[in-house]
Each structure stands twice: as structure tokens, then as C-alpha cells.
User: Fold these one by one.
Assistant:
Number 1:
Amino acid sequence: MLQVPPNCDLSLGLRRVASDDPAQSVWTIEVDERFTNPMGVLQGGFLAAIADSAMGAAVVQAATGAVRVANTDLRVSLLRPVRPGATLTCAAQVRRIGRTVAFTDATVRDQHDHLVATASSTFVVSPR
């Protein structure tokens, strides 16, 4: 049985936000001090994980029927440091979905609407 949200999202503290667009998935997170690097800012891998989760959820939403998705590549650009206490919103969109492949991108913004990261990914889609 598929657990939604998965444990990795629960561990990060991701929360889903309603979206009217079936090809979009929006998530928020409060940046926790536990996820900072020695410089005191959010470690980039956590930004990648947030974007990956949001993009995967967008593909599952946009697909016809029950599917499994697997990320085959992930490109993340870290644009601005994020400090503990910030609230981030990640909006992921499916740009194109076929029977076996989906192309996605995402933006991560802070509570001041500053763009802190962008991401893009390709997912393999298969029936569940």
C-alpha cells in the first residue's frame, strides 16, 4: 500500500497546500535548525528533497490512473540562502506527461516571495 505523504516528507515537515490545477503540487515547510549546514543556512540537499517531493506528487496527480513514478534526473539551482525560521513554499508543475515519461519543474520561494531555488526533473511513469 502506498503511504501518502511518505515518511521522508513527514520527516522534513512538508505540508501540502490545495491547488486547483491537477498538474500542480504546492507544499510548504518551516525551516528547522536541524537541517542547516555549518554556515547556519538550510543545506542544499533539503531544498532538492523538497522540490523532488513536490514534483513527484505533481506527476502522480497529473497521471491517468494509479501510477508509480521514479526520478531519473534532478537539477537544482540554489539562488539564495535560507535561514532557520523561514517558511518556504514549493510549487511544482508538470510541463508534459506521456505514457512513460513526465517532465516537471519547480520553484521554491520564501515568506517574502523571494525565489530561493529552482528545479527541473524527468520522471519515469509506470502503472501501479
Number 2:
Amino acid sequence: MTAARRRPMLRPSPTRRALAALPLLAVLPSAGRAAPAGAIDQLRAFLSQTRAASGEFTQRVAGGKGAVPQVSSGRFVFQRPGRFRWVYEKPYEQVLVADGERLYLYDKDLNQVTVKRIAAALPASPAAILFGTDDFEREFTVTELGERDGLAWLEARPRAKESQFERIAIGFRDGLPAALELADGFGQTTHLRLARVQRNPKVDAQTFRFTPPPGAEVLQER
């Protein structure tokens, strides 16, 4: 069943950039803990110390010259490896849920659900770095970028040629990811910032389960 109301196709769908948004789950720094010097070492420490996190995000997508930036915001929770819930609240309501095997993308206005296999959706994507296993360097070539805007930055370039992202930059502060920039092959750059983050909260297993709403159109991508 299709939705009774559809928005103009000119609006970029946040869910189509969801894999860019999903990896930004940072945690608040612990008092008295010395952060590793390099961004790559900070990423390794983050992965080894963080099983789950929750918080809020702001996402800004910039296109070519003259394009109006698209800004959205919402909240997230994740549990490694491969489980997360990423909810866009403004300006449009959309939900992404990964249960470890499948990724569900739900557009409330269209009443449409797209289902993908995690194995096909996450490799060589930013989500694979912070939602997957600790072996991120198998999928990416990673280099240090130095200091900028008070953050220590690294750059990750996917080894897979079919990745939709050309480069991924992650900025760290005090041993924790604080910002992320994603450049794709279409000339767009996605900037993400995090806020009100909690590290290793108790997470209900139901958080990562998704049942399509009654009447929603369900599209299975193979």
C-alpha cells in the first residue's frame, strides 16, 4: 500500500544519507583520563571501551555551489556490533533500525519501509567503523590529518571501489569522536555533531527491533 501523501521529489531524503549519519555515536570524556595523542589511537581506544552509547545529533548536508544546505536533527542509540536506532525528528520524521542482520529505513510521511541486509548495507561505510567490529583497518586506509578546530582528525578512505563515500574524516577530542565529515561521489559533504551523549547505557533489546506499521509499503532490497 502506498502513502496517501508524498512530498516533492526535490527534497533529499535523510534516510538516503543515513549510513553517513549512523557512525557519529560519541561518548562524554571521563575526568582524569589521558587521551591518546593520535586520532587513530583514540579511535582504537573508543572501540575497545565502548559497547553502547546514546545521545542527540545534528546533521548538515552541503552540495555544490549555490545549493541550500539541508539540516536535520534527532537522536540515536547503538550497541556494537551491528545494532543501532537512528531517529530523524526534524524537519521530517524518519527511522533507521539495525538488528544485527537487517537494516530498516522507515519514512513516516510516505508510510514506506525499505529493508536491507546488514552485510550489504554497512561494509565500507562510516557505520562499519563505529557500529561494526574493531577491525576497521581491513575495510579502510586510515591516515592522521592533524589538529583542526580543536580536534584531532583522521581520514578513512574505503578500500572497496563500490563504496558511495570517497573519504570519511573523524575528529576526536579527549579520546572520543566529536565530529564527522563524509564526502561522497556526487559532490556532497555531510557534517555531523553530537550532544547529550551517554556512554555504555543500559539498552533494552527491544530498541533494535522494528515491525513495519500497519499498511506500510515494504520494499526488500537484495
Number 3:
Amino acid sequence: MKTISTIFLVLFSTLCVAQPGIYKQVDSQGNVSYSNIHSEDAKKVELPSITVVPAIDTSAVNSKMQRRMESIRNKAESDAIEKEIAEETNYLEQLKNEYNDDSLDILDIERNQQGYFNNRRSERLKSEVLRSEENLDALRYRLEASP
């Protein structure tokens, strides 16, 4: 029992003497090296204590980022719809100017077969005006429905 106590005492004292540390050594040429092993010409370096910063809760940050990205996507979608509305409005104005409430401007190419071309052109323009107005209504509805 006495031997176990002696062994324990010897081990404990060696552990107390061999404390870990960082040592700085400068050789004859001026090169600096750091080590955790003590040598005769090395000096122990006192390092500042380590600051531990607790982790942040990223769920709130992730949620905010997701909402921001969704807002950017919604804005881009709204801008695209507004651009489509502007293009469709311009196209509708061109059609209405050409259609001119069923009183077509006669083009030079149509003078020979005026009746036939007037009816065909009038029907085509009338259907395109209606389709364009429906497109505009659908686009405006999409813009109002987008978040």
C-alpha cells in the first residue's frame, strides 16, 4: 500500500512540474521559433486568455434572409408584369389606331380588292384588339394578386 502511495505522489509531483506552455526561442541567426517543448535558452510566453463567444441563434437571421429574398423575387416578378403591361398597352394602342373603330385606313395595296381586304383586315384587327384587352386584364389581375 505504501508503494502505491509513493508512486502516486511521484506521478502527481511530475505532473505539477511539467506544466504545458508555449516557449519562444531565438537562435544565433535571429530566427524566432515557438514550441511547446522547453529548451534551455527558450523563454516562456504568456499568452492572453481565449475569449469564447457564444453562438448566435441563426434561425432568426435565416428567416429574415428568406423573407428578404422572397421580397426581391416578388419585386422582380411585379416589375416583369408591369413591363408586359406596358408592352401590351403599346400594342393595343397601335391596333386601335389601325382599326380606328371599324373604319379602316385603306392601304395602297388594298385598293384593288378593297371590300375583301377590308372585311378580312377588320375582322383580324377586331379579334386582336379583344385578345389584347383580355391580355391586359389578365396581366393587371396577376399584378394585383402578386404579394
